[in-house]
Write a structure and sequence with these properties.
TATA-Binding Protein; 178 residues; globular; alpha+beta
Length: 178
């Protein structure tokens, strides 16, 4: 008879517990609202789990720079030198105050965006994914002597964001231009 290590048994037990928990939640959701669709119930079930991570301590502008992107590909920055993370800054022709107000208006119209901090040269917002609760930190920096806005959008957890941060900045850029 082959012996199974204790650590494996404990890990297997935790996995079975997790499956039972998810199964009981699924059954509970369907019992409470049997006419709901599978898609809406999936959102309810997934929203129980949150992968928000901790807010980074290195946010903000230091010496005219936003924080550098980590080595993982789930970050873009207009101040990055490498191709993996590089994205162009936003540009504007109006006053800095008008550009900041325009950006605030755009962000307020995005369902999963929340503006956390606003200063005359800086805006910090958080974007939360609908289903799994992933939080991305998005920063905008308005240098005094330039008519541009440096951007940084970074996922808090994981390795890949499947291009979400880059697409987000490009969508904001398109809305900012119109």
């Amino acid at each position: 008879m082959k012996m199974i290590p204790f650590a494996f048994k404990a890990m297997n037990f935790k996995f079975i517990q997790s499956i039972l928990l998810v199964t009981s939640i699924c059954v509970g959701v369907f019992l409470v609202n049997p006419t709901a669709t599978l898609a809406s119930n999936s959102v309810q079930i997934a929203s129980i789990f949150s992968f928000s991570g901790e807010q980074p301590k290195n946010l903000g502008v230091k010496n005219g720079q936003l924080a550098k992107c980590p080595q993982t590909p789930n970050c873009v920055s207009s101040q990055s030198k490498d191709v993996t993370h590089k994205v162009d800054p936003l540009t504007y022709d109006s006053s800095r105050k008008e550009a900041l107000n325009r950006l605030k208006t755009i962000l307020k119209e995005i369902n999963n965006a929340e503006i956390i901090e606003v200063k005359p040269q800086y805006l910090y917002s958080q974007f939360t994914s609908r289903i799994m609760g992933f939080v991305d930190d998005v920063e905008f920096y308005f240098p005094l002597q330039e008519k541009l806005i440096h951007v940084r959008s970074a996922s808090r957890v994981g390795q890949s964001d499947l291009g979400v941060n880059r697409r987000r900045i490009e969508r904001i850029r398109q809305q900012f231009k119109t």
